[in-house]
Amino acid sequence: MLTADKIKELIEGINGISLIDDFTIDETGSLKGRIAVATSKNNADLEWDVHISPTYPFKAMGREPIHFQNKNLLDYPHIMQGGNLCMHPAEYENAESQFENDLKQLKEWVEKYYVRKHNDAHYEHLVVNHYLIRKRYYTFCFSETQDGFAEGDFGMVNFAALPTGRKNDSSVINYVIQKFVSYVKIKKKELPCKISKSYQSLNSYDGVYCLLNNVPSIHGKFIVEDFDSIKGLFSQSQKNYIHSFVVSHRNKCDFFPLFCGYIIPGGDVHWQAMMLFMDNLPIEPVRVGTGKNRFWCTDFRQGIIQWAETVDISYKYFFGRGAIPELLANKKILIMGIGAIGSIVAETLTRCGARYLTLYDIDNKEPGNVCRSIYPFYTGITEKTLDMESLLTQISPHVECTSLKSIVDLMVKTYAAEHEDNTALAKFFDEFDVIFDCTTDNQLMRLMDSIGTKAQLINLSITNHAQDLICAFSPNVTETVLLVYNLLKRDAETDMYNPTGCWNPTFKASYNDIECKVQVAMKHIIKMLSKLEPLNSFYITEDDLNLKINKL
After folding, report:
1. Which of 226, 276, 392, 484 has the fewest CB atoms in 10 Å of its CB?
2. pLDDT digits (tens, 9 = 90+) for 424-456
3. Which domains does the chain have, with CATH numbers?
4. pTM of the predicted structure, to 2 decimals
């Protein structure tokens, strides 16, 4: 634990740091003092108020345990609204080493940003403090639009409600923007957001947007907090449109968001949303001019802006932390059989950024399926395809997920039984680029092998107790699968799971048993389909220590 005497001793041993006011303990148990950091050339020393938490050197509640504050440096990078230096120091094993490193990082900031006036190339969004608005938090997600916005654009926003969340013991009212409708010209123009049809089809509410003529910032990094500071960024046409929206919606809603857009480096439009309530509107009529030239217009009156939280969920940001290559993400993928293996495949592709998935299964989801698939129990008994489609669209706003009816199984097999020429079936499956067959239906496997579809066919199956996973690529899927099962010589008949009643037995394996092998397989399948690895059938075996990939 640091003491005031120890801090004084450490500071005396560091060149370029001097103690101005001795450290004392306040009523919260925190250490507070004042130091100076020497600057090069003819600049005066920079003085900093220092606040050290009782938890030092440990972070608590995600907050750094030490703060260096100088409210005269707000124009400089990494200085927050209260004058605190934003820093993320390396972690040391004891308080003394940590304190010495923190002072070293402070000196580095002074040299880099204050003395050399360096500016980071990396763009940071405006700092917005999110407070409770009438005892609630409000959050709006938006994405890029199909077309760009005109200069000085304004109009209506359509947005949909998402489930209500919780944070800090208060409700979070969540919304997603569906589209912008421009009224800047006589003929309105719709600008849909790039999100899936599932979200576009939700019930809509109305708001207003205005593309501002400048960034609504203070010191280039904090958002403005009062209407006097922002009203000059709106054109008169935009202000008048806000008034017309209020007139047309006064009896339709209690509040609406006003989205303020501005161009950020790279050319994207970023949106901030202020909440406006009909019973306390911040706009008022203003009389301008004299005599015959006198007219009324709309302007903002004094007041504090209530900013909601906004999040850009455009594809490049939503999957910014990791995604499959674009070549694969844009392919049309059919997953046949969404049980233990197929459900994991579907979820993995969705979380990795796949855009177009079609699901097929003949079975219903029941409670017994939950333990080794990704289905929730909460939705009860329902068709697997419907439950999975709902789940995947909840995961990603960018996946277009559809389902084939179970009767397709009857239609496909009836046609194959009655026709020697499978050209029509081939055309049906040619609509897809990739087909995962996870059905364990040997008849369907042979049929898919024989129709000659242009789609890349991938058959995934697993042995009892998930000892092995087999992945076979077309052509010759059936031959490959039978070859591997013959090589493995697994006993497929004993120690199976037999449910109560007249059921076919099924293999035993936990979700973990299955999921670890499917994920390893998917890692290589994704690389193969993205042409980062040669296309090669393989099977995965397991010993006491490792999973082994055996390529054919």
Report:
1. 226
2. 888 999 999 999 999 988 989 999 988 889 999
3. 4-115 (3.10.110), 136-317 (no CATH), 326-551 (3.40.50.720)
4. 0.89
